[in-house]
């Protein structure tokens, strides 16, 4: 049997050896990190070493890193009414871009009538003029704009967003889950007031994430109460093995994120997209704006995403759909809907995302599968599973 090719890194990444080793060692540490005896201090050191690694990677102070159960919880914690920068007025409403992750679109602890949606341009980038109009209203708002979109890979103009948000007296939250370790991120240079990240997107374990707050932010209320852990920002005994694995993954990811790695990833992305475009009518979404070097969202007339994903799978290629399944019903991508994508293309969106062990041979295997799929598509539009 031919070895499978994994091209769904945006969904989750393989566990890095460094993270696996750190977790294995942490399982032998018996103490509770809140205990003051030697065993407790040993566990606390693992947590604080990981906190230091996350802080250094994102240009933050160690004391401003709050560990959570993942990116979803970190986002829910960040979306809190009453946040404020310095002496500014506390925020009382929420503005989110139309392409945010569902955990942000859910609005956190804001009431539904206090939430507004900022549109995006057809390129998949937030409409700064529309955002400015929303910010002109009162009271001040918390604005949530992701660093890079999880489907298209489109990198958002976060620094420009920050300027507008702060000029209006607001607070900026940036979901950096997909961008972390793929492009440089510094909370201070971006102008973000809150950043959220997740371990399993960078080679760490599932079930661990972090929220990073800016130096001047105040008004954050714990989402999970009942203990003084994480500086009273998140109650509950810390997941020591998971956090240790997160820290090790961060250290490994930062060590390998150099110009050569980015160049290699971009070359693989270009090779992939050139091959995908060999089928007439193939569209690569957000290809007119800066994107993550590992992310390609494509479609073609007549393609059915849900069956094409299975077709790739049968050929030994793991990819994902631009659609989300809920209770067995496939829903169109809200990201592509926000970009006003033609319904003919909307139904066929396929995401291919690369990682550190993706090779040219793996890309070529994917393109072999695409040639087979595309040949069927030419003969019979709106392909179904029975044709694979």
From TrEMBL:
Is Iron a UniProt keyword of this protein? Answer: yes
Alphabetic keyword roster: Iron, Iron-sulfur, Metal-binding, Pyridoxal phosphate, Transferase
What this protein needs as a cofactor is:
pyridoxal 5'-phosphate
Q: Which residues form the Aminotransferase class V domain?
A: 5-365
Q: Per its record, what are the GO molecular function terms?
A: cysteine desulfurase activity; iron-sulfur cluster binding; metal ion binding
The record ties this protein, via SUPFAM superfamilies, to: PLP-dependent transferases
Any idea what job this protein has? Answer: Catalyzes the removal of elemental sulfur atoms from cysteine to produce alanine. Seems to participate in the biosynthesis of the nitrogenase metalloclusters by providing the inorganic sulfur required for the Fe-S core formation.
What PANTHER family does this protein's entry cite?
CYSTEINE DESULFURASE, CYSTEINE DESULFURYLASE FAMILY MEMBER
| Protein name according to UniProt | Cysteine desulfurase
């Amino acid at each position: 049997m031919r070895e499978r090719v994994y091209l769904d890194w945006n969904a989750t990444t393989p566990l890095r050896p460094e993270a696996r080793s750190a977790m294995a060692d942490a399982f032998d540490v018996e103490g509770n990190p809140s205990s003051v005896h030697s065993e407790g201090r040993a566990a606390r050191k693992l947590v604080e070493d990981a906190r230091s690694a996350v802080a250094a990677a994102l240009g933050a102070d160690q004391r401003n890193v709050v560990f959570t159960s993942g990116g979803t919880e970190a986002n829910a914690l960040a979306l809190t009414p009453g946040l404020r920068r310095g002496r500014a007025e506390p925020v009382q409403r929420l503005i989110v871009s139309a392409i945010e992750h569902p955990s942000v679109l859910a609005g956190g602890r804001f009431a539904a009538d206090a939430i507004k949606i900022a549109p995006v341009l057809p390129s998949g980038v937030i409409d700064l003029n529309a955002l400015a109009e929303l910010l002109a209203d009162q009271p001040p708002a918390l604005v949530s704009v992701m660093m890079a979109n999880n489907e298209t890979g489109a990198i958002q103009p976060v620094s420009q967003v920050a300027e507008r948000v702060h000029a209006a007296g607001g607070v900026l939250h940036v979901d950096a889950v997909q961008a972390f370790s793929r492009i440089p991120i510094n909370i201070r240079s971006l102008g973000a007031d809150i950043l959220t990240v997740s371990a399993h997107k960078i080679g760490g374990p599932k079930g661990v994430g972090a929220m990073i707050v800016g130096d001047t932010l105040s008004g954050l209320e714990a989402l999970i109460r009942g203990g003084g852990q994480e500086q009273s920002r998140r109650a509950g005994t810390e997941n020591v093995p998971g956090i240790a694995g997160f820290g090790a993954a961060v250290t490994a990811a930062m060590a390998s994120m150099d110009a050569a790695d980015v160049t290699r990833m971009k070359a693989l992305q270009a090779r992939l997209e050139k091959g995908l475009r060999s089928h007439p009518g193939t569209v690569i979404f957000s290809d007119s704006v800066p994107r993550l070097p590992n992310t390609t969202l494509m479609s073609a007339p007549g393609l059915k995403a849900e069956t094409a994903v299975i077709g790739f799978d049968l050929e030994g290629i793991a990819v994902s759909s631009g659609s989300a399944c809920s209770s067995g019903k496939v829903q169109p991508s809200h990201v592509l809907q926000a970009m006003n994508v033609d319904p003919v293309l909307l139904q066929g969106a396929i995401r291919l995302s690369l990682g550190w062990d993706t090779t040219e041979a793996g890309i070529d295997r994917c393109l072999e599968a695409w040639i087979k799929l595309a040949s069927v598509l030419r003969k019979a539009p709106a392909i179904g599973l029975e044709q694979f």
